[in-house]
Specification:
- It is a single chain.
- Helix content is 19%, strand content 31%.
- The chain is an alpha+beta fold and 233 residues long.
- It has a seven-stranded antiparallel beta sheet with strand order 1-2-13-4-9-10-11.
- It is globular.
- The N and C termini lie far apart (47 Å).
- It comes from Myotis lucifugus (Little brown bat).
- InterPro entries: B30.2/SPRY, B30.2/SPRY_sf, Butyrophylin_SPRY, ConA-like_dom_sf, PRY, SPRY_dom, TRIM/RBCC.
């Protein structure tokens, strides 16, 4: 390709990225108005997980308790999770999670009944709507098979927006305000927020997943500030 053609192609790609970001922020900004206080239910936590005293962070003790396990990235995810205290039956709800430097995790929501009933594959058909990161480089959703996500800006913080009546669960990259993915389904019961700091993660005390403090429902969000600045605790 000639230099001029290459420059034009790069310009077109950048324009598309700018458009996608603007579209994503058009969805993300209104979603923030529905921020709710989400905390972790330590009673629901798997024994390999450690929940903080304020019920806002969870880390994995797997590496300290067990040897590293190679193979299927979903093989050891079933039930090694913690749920939120809150169950959502109706309405609109939004929360954010800081992943720090974790290279493996799952985030999303699940039906309260199936999560507490026993092991199940993490798919919408089983009552789980989640996205994840594997080995620090592969973002994906399970719907029910793993579908890779192409993210131009890697998220340090993920926003999750739930619309119970519409059957939607949307994920946003708070680092740039872009939309990541939306599940559309029928929720057949109360939903809990789902957290899974997947193991092993390369150290005995890896960074936790932390629920971020946000201006709660009804608090105006400053339009002039970008996502990174506004979202700081």
């Amino acid at each position: 390709s000639s230099p001029g053609k290459l420059t034009a192609e790069l310009g077109k790609m950048q324009s598309e990225l700018d458009w996608r970001r603007a579209e994503g922020q058009a969805e993300w900004r209104p979603a923030q108005q529905y921020a709710v206080n989400v905390t972790l239910d330590s009673a629901s936590a798997h024994p390999s997980l450690e929940v903080s005293q304020d019920d806002r962070s969870v880390s994995s003790r797997w590496a300290a308790l067990f040897p590293a396990v190679p193979g299927d990235p979903q093989r050891f995810t079933e039930q090694m999770c913690v749920l939120s205290h809150q169950c959502f039956r109706t309405g609109l709800h939004y929360w954010e999670v800081d992943m720090c430097q974790r290279s493996r995790w799952f985030l999303g929501a699940c039906l309260e009944a199936v999560a507490r009933a026993g092991p199940a594959r993490l798919s919408p058909a089983a009552g789980y709507w989640v996205m994840g990161l594997w080995n620090g480089c592969e973002y994906f959703v399970l719907e029910p098979h793993r579908r890779a996500l192409s993210l131009h800006v890697l998220p340090q913080r993920v926003g999750i927006f739930m619309d119970c009546e519409a059957g939607k669960l949307a994920f946003f990259n708070v680092s740039d305000g872009s939309h990541i993915f939306t599940f559309t389904d029928t929720f057949s019961g109360p939903l809990c927020a789902y957290f899974r700091p997947r193991a092993p993660d390369g150290s005995t005390r890896p960074d936790p997943l932390t629920i971020c403090p946000l201006p709660l429902r009804g608090t105006p969000v400053p339009e002039e500030e970008d996502g990174d600045t506004w979202a700081q605790p």
